[in-house]
């Protein structure tokens, strides 16, 4: 009786790798030569991080930070959730309630802290004068349905995938694997 391994597929391409190292350590080295070494996050990413939905104003966001500091809790990161958006539009900030957020971010950095902005991968398609969507349309950066598919939410002549996320209207999804998207 010989040991056997059988794979049956219904199609597609199957890449199989055998790692025949003489020791477990050698097998791990061979495996890493195929997939690469794992990413190690920066040190600050392991620290205390403050985030919540519901900061209506920058003053409320700052108050949460100061309560944390006054409680002698070391903090490394403060997040801005979607509250800081202008009308919940990605890549914007509310010019009234969060108008001084650039200065607050500078203050955090000067005090050794980071600021991370939440971004939803959904761009409003119906907002007026929204340059993010307009420029995305010009560069054709949206995720698309495959050819000849029953297109859910399909109301245009293109194959752009539409859905609903935070904005009230339909949203399009940038294809971050398409290089012009990061431009």
Written description of the protein model:
The chain has 183 residues and is an alpha/beta fold. The protein folds into two domains: 44-117, no CATH class; 120-183, no CATH class. Helices cover 24% and strands 9% of the residues. The chain has four helices and six strands; from the N terminus they run H-E-H-E-H-E-E-H-E-E. It has helices at 24-35, 58-70, 101-110, 131-139, and strands at 49-50, 77-80, 114-117, 123-124, 162-163, 171-172. The strands form two sheets. A three-stranded parallel sheet has the order 1-2-3. A three-stranded antiparallel sheet has the order 4-6-5, with no helix packed on it. The longest helix has 13 residues, at 58-70. The radius of gyration is 24 Å and the shape is flat. The protein starts with 23 loop residues before the first helix and ends in an 11-residue tail after the last strand.
Could you give a short description of this structure?
GO terms for molecular function: alpha-1,4-glucosidase activity. The protein has 183 residues and is an alpha/beta fold.
